[in-house]
Structure formats: C-alpha cells, structure tokens
Inverse folding.
C-alpha cells in the first residue's frame, strides 16, 4: 500500500457493525471516556494504526505482557547501541552487555 490514508481526513460513508456484550461495551466505553474518546474513536485509532504498520497494531499471543516486554527491551537496546556507536570518545561509554546484566536482561 503506497498511499497514506488518514482515517480522520477521509469521508466516512461506509458503516461497520459488530455484536458485543452490553456489559463489555459499557466497560470499554467507560475506559475510553477516561481517555477522552469514544468507542468509535478507539476503533478508528486501531484501524489507523493497522494501516500505518500494515498489520495488527498489537501483539496477540498467549503471553502478550512478556512479548511486549521483550519487544520494548529490543527497541531500547537498539537505541542504546545507536547512541554508543555515535560517540567518538568511547572511554565514557557503558558497555551494553554490562548494562543488560545490571538489569537482569539476557541479550
């Protein structure tokens, strides 16, 4: 998909319907209301993120919490490596492997 789509700017002429338990709907509407949005806003955000990344905008696994943690660690370590590589004077650089050990992270 080469075109950039923004769900906020495109005309909304199609409809989408789904069945959901009324108690679940009320609970999730309350959650989103605390974030200042409606259920429709949240669905549109989900759709926009799906378009942005070309797939599911979240990790769906039996152990999503651990998968998200590992993904965050991978991103952090990558950013740390970029920072380390950008420093000219390496004498003050903390070794990434040592840092990982300090936090109990296996690379």
């Amino acid at each position: 998909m080469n075109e950039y789509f923004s769900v906020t700017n495109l005309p909304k002429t199609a409809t989408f319907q789904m069945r959901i338990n009324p108690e679940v709907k009320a609970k999730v509407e309350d959650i989103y209301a605390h974030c200042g949005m409606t259920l429709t806003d949240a669905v549109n955000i989900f759709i926009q993120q799906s378009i942005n990344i070309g797939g599911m905008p979240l990790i769906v696994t039996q152990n999503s919490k651990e998968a998200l943690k590992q993904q965050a660690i991978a991103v952090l370590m990558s950013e740390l490596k970029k920072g380390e590589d950008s420093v000219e004077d390496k004498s003050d650089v903390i070794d990434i492997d040592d840092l990982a050990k300090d936090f109990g992270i296996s690379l």
Notes: The chain has a mean pLDDT of 83. DSSP finds four helices and no strands in the chain.
